[in-house]
Design goal:
Elongation Factor Tu (Ef-tu), domain 3, 24 strands, 5-stranded mixed β-sheet, elongated, 7 helices, alpha+beta, conserved putative lor/sdh protein from methanococcus maripaludis s2 fold
Length: 459
C-alpha cells in the first residue's frame, strides 16, 4: 500500500512539473511576441538634431587657419631651373621675380631653326625660278606634245613649291614658339604674399602630380578649414553661419559662414584608434571651409574651434529652434512632438515661439528638452509604438554580435552535457528554466503532500 501511494506521489510530481514547464515556455513565447510584434519607430535626441549638446553647448569642430588665396608656380617640363631668387618665408610682391630657367638649349634651337628657315627660303626661291624657266620654255615650244610635257612638269613643280611654303610656315611657327619661351625665361609671382614652400628639387616637382615648384599664399585674407565626421556632416550646409573660437582664449571669437562642405574627398578615421582597421570599423572625416567677416588676431596655421551659430552670443542664447518637420501641426492650435517615454512613443504638447522662414525652424519655448528623444511624424504614427534610439543602435549591434558569439559557445557546451532522465522510483534530473541542469535527489516516500507542493513551488 505504501508503494502504491509512493508511486502516486511521483506521478503527481511529474504532472505538476510538466505543467509548470509548459506554462513557463508559453509565458516566454507570449512575452517574446509582445516584445517584438509592435511596429518600431526611430528616435533621435533633440541635441543631435539641433547640433546642440545636452548640456546646452553647441557641437564643436576642429579647424585650422589657412590662406584664402594661394598661387603655385608650376614648372615647364622641357626646361630646367637655372636660379631661384626667393626663399621660404620671404614676402613677395605681385610681379616679383621668383626663378629663371636655363635657356641655353632654347637659344641654340632658335639659331638652328633660323638657319633651317633660311635654307627653306633659298630653296623656295630656286623652285620659283625653275617654274618661271619652264613656263618660258613651254611658251616657246611649237610642238603640242612638248607643251603638254612642260605643263605636267610645271604642275609637279608647283606642288613641290606649295609643300615648301608649308615647311616654311611651320618653321616660322616653331621659331615664334621658341622665342615666346625665351621671353618667359624668368617667372614672376601672380599675387602678393609670402613664399610658403619651394620644392627641394625641381626634378621632384616635375615628377609630382601638381608639378608645383613655388607656392605663394596671400597672408592678408584667411579662411578656416574644418574637419567633420560622417556622423555629424548632415548638420553642416553651405552658407550656414558659424562662430570660430580661439583655443587659448575662450572670449576671442570670429564670425563667418561655411562656403563649401567637401564631400568629394574623405580621410579614414579608425573607430578603435588602429591604423590598420578595416573599413567596417572606421569612419570618414570630411573637410569644410569657412570664410570670415574679419580675421584680425588670427595667425596662419593657428588651430581653432568651430561652432554653428545658433544665437549663443545673442541675448536669446537659451532659445531652442527645431526643424518644422519634427513638429506635428495636425492640430495647429495644439502643436505636439512625438517623444520617447521609457521605450514607447507618446505625444507631448509644446509651445512655439517665432518661426524662421529662412531656416524653416520653429522656436520651442516650452515642452521640449535637449535630452528628449523625438521621432519625425508620419502617416500611421501612434502612441505606444516601440522606439529605437538611432544613436545607440550601432553600439547595441556590436554588443549583440559579441553576445551571440558567447551564446554559440555556451549552446555547444550545453548540447554535449544535457541529459533528461526521469526516474520515477525515487530521483530525477530537473532542468531549470534558464537552460542549466541541476540534479536533485528527492526521497518522495518520506515526504508529506505539503512538502512535495512546497518543493515544486520552489522550483
Amino acid at each position: 500500500m505504501k508503494n502504491f501511494f509512493g508511486k502516486k506521489k511521483n506521478v503527481i510530481i511529474v504532472i505538476v512539473i510538466v505543467a509548470l514547464i509548459c506554462a513557463g515556455v508559453g509565458g516566454y513565447f507570449y512575452y517574446d511576441y509582445a516584445q517584438y510584434s509592435d511596429e518600431e519607430v526611430y528616435v533621435s535626441s533633440v541635441s543631435s538634431i539641433t547640433g546642440v549638446s545636452a548640456n546646452g553647448l553647441n557641437n564643436r569642430y576642429a579647424g585650422v587657419v589657412e590662406a584664402q588665396e594661394s598661387w603655385t608656380a608650376s614648372l615647364d617640363g622641357s626646361l630646367s631651373v637655372k636660379e631661384t631668387y626667393v626663399e621660404v618665408g620671404q614676402s613677395v610682391e605681385e610681379g616679383q621675380e621668383l626663378f629663371s630657367y636655363d635657356m641655353s638649349e632654347v637659344e641654340s634651337s632658335i639659331r638652328s631653326a633660323k638657319l633651317e628657315l633660311e635654307r627653306l627660303n633659298n630653296e623656295l626661291t630656286a623652285m620659283q625660278d625653275d617654274i618661271n624657266e619652264l613656263s618660258a620654255e613651254r611658251d616657246a615650244a611649237t610642238d603640242e606634245t612638248a607643251k603638254a610635257e612642260y605643263t605636267v612638269e610645271i604642275q609637279q613643280a608647283q606642288l613641290d613649291l606649295s609643300s615648301k611654303k608649308y615647311d616654311i610656315t611651320s618653321k616660322n611657327e616653331e621659331i615664334s614658339s621658341l622665342q615666346e619661351k625665351l621671353s618667359s625665361a624668368t617667372v614672376t609671382s601672380k599675387i602678393a604674399g609670402v613664399v610658403k614652400s619651394i620644392a627641394s628639387d625641381s626634378e621632384d616637382a616635375l615628377l609630382s602630380d601638381s608639378s608645383g615648384y613655388i607656392t605663394i599664399v596671400n597672408m592678408s585674407a584667411f579662411q578656416i578649414r574644418g574637419s567633420v565626421n560622417e556622423q555629424n556632416i548632415s548638420a553642416l550646409s553651405n552658407d550656414a553661419a558659424v562662430i570660430v573660437y580661439s583655443r587659448t582664449d575662450a572670449n576671442q571669437y570670429w564670425k563667418g559662414k561655411i562656403t563649401n562642405v567637401d564631400t568629394g574627398s574623405a580621410s579614414s578615421n579608425s573607430s578603435y584608434g588602429e591604423e590598420d582597421s578595416d573599413t567596417l570599423t572606421s569612419s570618414s572625416n570630411y573637410s569644410f571651409y569657412v570664410s570670415l567677416e574679419e580675421s584680425e588676431g588670427l595667425n596662419m596655421g593657428q588651430h581653432v574651434y568651430i561652432e554653428l551659430d545658433q544665437g549663443q552670443l545673442d541675448e536669446k542664447s537659451d532659445a531652442l529652434y527645431l526643424e518644422e518637420y519634427y513638429i506635428d501641426l495636425t492640430d495647429e492650435e495644439n502643436p505636439v512632438v512625438w517623444v520617447d517615454d521609457n521605450g514607447h512613443l507618446k505625444k507631448q504638447s509644446v509651445t512655439l515661439g517665432e518661426y524662421d522662414e529662412n531656416l524653416m525652424k520653429y522656436e520651442v519655448t516650452k515642452g521640449l528638452e535637449l535630452s528628449d528623444l523625438i521621432a519625425m511624424p508620419y502617416d500611421g504614427i501612434k502612441e505606444g509604438m516601440k522606439t529605437v534610439n538611432t544613436e545607440e543602435e550601432d553600439s547595441e549591434s556590436d554588443e549583440l554580435e559579441d553576445t551571440e558569439d558567447s551564446e554559440d559557445v555556451g549552446d555547444s557546451e550545453e548540447d554535449d552535457d544535457t541529459s533528461e532522465d526521469t526516474d520515477l522510483s525515487g530521483s530525477e534530473d530537473i532542468g531549470t528554466l534558464d537552460g542549466s541542469n541541476t540534479t536533485q535527489d528527492i526521497d518522495v516516500d518520506n515526504m508529506t503532500n505539503e512538502e512535495i507542493l512546497e518543493m515544486i513551488q520552489g522550483n
